[in-house]
């Protein structure tokens, strides 16, 4: 269960102190917005660990025990704190209860980038399992509905589509798309549908196609015969996966692809 849902469930029976990073200067273990919820005996989430988190948790329990208005405090990450990051973190402390649940569900919800994974085979399953731990909204598509496992994270939505490429039209704008079905013809049809959507709307983000350099050349040729220019096909990332991560095991491919996606999203965020 995602940590926010765990917090909301526990607030039904226990109050907590919410500790949130208000701002940072220089090097800091977590960015603005990171949070943890401190209960009398334990905590959920993290603001970066180490002595910063230990001292913040101690202060949070004091506030939880005695009550009081929300407050902010500055922590210098230097020798006095037993950390050598060298930055400064401003933390906000606030006692929270069940009555705050609706507000917290909105304010603490992570911004989830949309991702579509086409293919529920070994690699697709490994990739969705990994991406499901990240703040992403995932649409998982296959033409074989029986392959979708039960018990998926809340941010993973499965979609049966036959023909499979029809699902491309309904993807949220800004989606990153990974094409890794069991069938090269399906991969080709999905790639064509993505290029067609880019031609009409230009609203897809990273488009990744599993395969070799040979597959890339073959698809480029076949799509050129269908009227797509080289510049359009150049938008397709194939092979997929962060360069330098080798191995053909599904889990290794999934890690390489997830790393590539995170790198892409972070670059776009800071562009």
* Domains, number: 2
> Could you say what the CATH topology of the largest domain is called?
Rossmann fold
Biggest beta-sheet profile: 6 strands, parallel
The CATH C-level class name of the largest domain: Alpha Beta
Q: Given the C-alpha coordinates, what overall shape results?
A: elongated
| Poorly predicted runs of 5 or more residues | none
N-end to C-end Cα span = 33 Å
> What is the element string, with H for helices and E for strands?
HEEEHEEHEHEEEHEHHEH
Protein name: Xanthine dehydrogenase accessory protein XdhC
Pfam families: XdhC_C (PF13478), XdhC_CoxI (PF02625)
Domain XdhC- CoxI: 12-69
Domain XdhC Rossmann: 115-261
Please give a handful of descriptors for the protein shown:
271 residues; alpha/beta; Rossmann fold; 2 domains; 6-stranded parallel beta sheet; 5-stranded antiparallel beta sheet; 8 helices; 22% strand
What would your notes on this structure say?
- This protein is an alpha/beta fold and 271 residues long.
- It folds into two domains: 3-107, no CATH class; 113-270, NAD(P)-binding Rossmann-like Domain (Rossmann fold, 3-Layer(aba) Sandwich).
- Helix content is 36%, strand content 22%.
- A six-stranded parallel β-sheet has the order 8-7-6-9-10-11, with helices on both faces. A five-stranded antiparallel β-sheet has the order 3-2-1-5-4.
- α5 (184-200) links the parallel β9 (176-179) and β10 (207-209).
- α4 packs across α8.
- 30% of the residues are buried.
- This is Xanthine dehydrogenase accessory protein XdhC.
- Pfam families: XdhC_C, XdhC_CoxI.
- Residues 115-261 form the XdhC Rossmann domain.
């Amino acid at each position: 269960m995602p940590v926010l849902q765990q917090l909301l469930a526990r607030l039904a029976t226990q109050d907590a102190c919410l500790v949130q990073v208000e701002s940072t200067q220089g090097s800091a273990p977590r960015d603005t917005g990171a949070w943890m919820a401190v209960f009398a005996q334990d905590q959920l989430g993290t603001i970066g660990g180490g002595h910063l988190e230990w001292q913040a948790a101690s202060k949070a329990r004091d506030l939880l025990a005695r009550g009081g208005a929300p407050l902010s405090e500055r922590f210098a990450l230097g020798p006095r704190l037993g950390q050598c990051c060298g930055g400064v973190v401003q933390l906000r402390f606030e006692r929270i209860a069940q009555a705050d649940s609706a507000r917290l569900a909105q304010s603490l919800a992570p911004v989830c980038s949309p991702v579509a994974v086409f293919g529920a085979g070994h690699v697709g399953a490994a990739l969705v399992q990994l991406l499901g731990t990240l703040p992403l909204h995932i649409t998982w598509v296959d033409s074989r509905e029986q392959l979708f496992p039960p018990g998926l994270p809340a941010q993973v939505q499965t979609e049966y589509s036959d023909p499979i490429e029809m699902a491309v039209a309904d993807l949220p704008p800004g989606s990153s798309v990974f094409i890794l079905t069991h069938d090269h013809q399906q991969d080709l049809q999905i790639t064509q549908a993505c290029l067609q959507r880019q031609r009409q709307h230009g609203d897809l983000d990273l488009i990744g196609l599993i395969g070799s350099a040979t597959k890339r050349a073959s698809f480029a040729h076949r799509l050129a015969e269908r009227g797509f220019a080289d510049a359009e096909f150049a938008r397709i990332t194939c092979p997929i996966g962060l360069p330098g991560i080798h191995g053909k095991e599904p889990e290794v491919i999934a890690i390489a692809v997830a790393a590539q996606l995170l790198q892409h999203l972070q670059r776009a965020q800071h562009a």
